[in-house]
Design goal:
The protein is mainly alpha-helical. It has a single domain, classed as Four Helix Bundle (Hemerythrin (Met), subunit A) (Up-down Bundle). The chain has a two-stranded antiparallel sheet with strand order 1-2. It is flat.
Length: 184
């Protein structure tokens, strides 16, 4: 993973780091989702578990709610139907387009935030947060669900899974490659 652009302004560096982290988690999820068949999007390991489709559906609802009018309205929109996000859809066909659109809402916010905005106040369910705290809260939330998506995708793909990081038994080869690149 590359470091975000450096800055002499700590707030600018924090904002760049947060933006980089969100984009990294989306990329990780995208790479896992791309390996799944339509049936695997809908599969659940047990009756109490969420499918990948439900996790994506929930993240879409959360992204839309939290980041639409981010600086000017509560992050829990009155139109959000959170409980419905956890109902299994009949098909996952519409979810990839919704996923992309929802993440774009976040990326548009991040692209327009200024370092000075980090200490502004925003609300989530009526609770005051600094912009920084609200962003950190969402990074943690999305990391949690992306991990679930990756784990389910890995389980469903089995031997066909294409690793998203360093393959087992390849750490030394990878580290040697990274050292060689650093020395050039």
């Amino acid at each position: 993973m590359l470091l975000p652009p450096s800055s002499n302004d700590p707030a600018a560096a924090v904002l760049a780091s947060i933006s980089h982290t969100f984009r990294s988690y989306k990329t990780l999820a995208d790479r896992a989702l791309a390996q799944l068949t339509p049936a695997q999007w809908l599969a659940t390991p047990s009756a109490q578990s969420n499918s990948v489709a439900v996790l994506v559906q929930h993240m879409v609802g959360n992204l839309r709610s939290r980041f639409t009018d981010f600086l000017t309205s509560d992050g829990e929109k009155p139109t959000r139907q959170r409980d419905q996000e956890f109902e299994q859809p009949a098909t996952a066909a519409a979810l990839p387009a919704q996923w992309e659109a929802a993440w774009q809402i976040l990326f548009d916010v991040l692209d327009h935030l200024a370092p000075a905005d980090l200490l502004r106040t925003v609300y989530i369910r009526g609770e005051a947060h600094t912009v920084l705290l609200a962003l950190q809260r969402q990074v943690a939330h999305y990391a949690y669900h992306v991990g679930q998506i990756v784990q389910l995708a890995r389980e469903w793909r089995g031997a066909e899974w294409q690793t998203l990081s360093i393959a087992r038994g390849q750490s030394e080869v990878f580290n040697a490659h990274m050292r060689a690149q650093a020395n050039h």
